[in-house]
């Protein structure tokens, strides 16, 4: 999916919502445990309930890898079930070098070998360009680079100054030598708020994947105030706040209700910014 196609989906749906599929056996509704593959059934019902409200889905691969062979099969089947006009993100946070990085790229982008071909994958930049460039060899695929995250320990490294720049600013500046805003996005945590202004000074045209809305306390209005650009430029992720909104047999309906609340707020923001 190209940048323009993604923006067209945002305009069509009047939404820039990404639903995170952090699906865990100990958190999904108990009545689903009777199914042969409870997590896959959970994911399918969540997707069916929200696919007209969101423009992206983001399975966090750790929630599948932990279940071994069956987990990988569930990830593959979940990718297959995501409608192909919806942007798919493998939230894998890979970050190795050389052949290892190339194999990770094959894992998430080459359906002939792995049975999965996500539109994008999250990558950690700490090891530099050779940990990222193997992913960029795949045409029409995206790297979503960790820049400024929403976890408590982000300040241990990301805010440390190096030659006048904070480390996350160095990441933004250096990585733009590897790819442009048609193939690279950045992860910027919603709980950083006004820091989006600093990010936009260095990456005005890139899409930003923004976790932390909802359960983690991020404020959508503040994020959009500083982070919105002429093509929206934001994918706002909500995981637990949507997928675990209900624990009964109506869990998918409850998830839809929460997704709809965010979608309506996003629509008002897009209209106010004259983007739709």
TrEMBL record:
Q: What class of enzyme is it?
A: lyase
What organism is the protein native to? Pedobacter frigidisoli
**Which top-level group of life is the source organism from?**
Bacteria
Q: What is this protein called?
A: Orotidine-5'-phosphate decarboxylase
Under the heading CDD domains, the entry gives: OMP_decarboxylase_like
Give EC number(s), comma-separated: 4.1.1.23
Q: Which family does it belong to?
A: Belongs to the OMP decarboxylase family. Type 2 subfamily.
Q: Its GO biological process terms?
A: 'de novo' pyrimidine nucleobase biosynthetic process; 'de novo' UMP biosynthetic process
According to its UniProt record, in which pathway does this protein act? Pyrimidine metabolism; UMP biosynthesis via de novo pathway; UMP from orotate: step 2/2
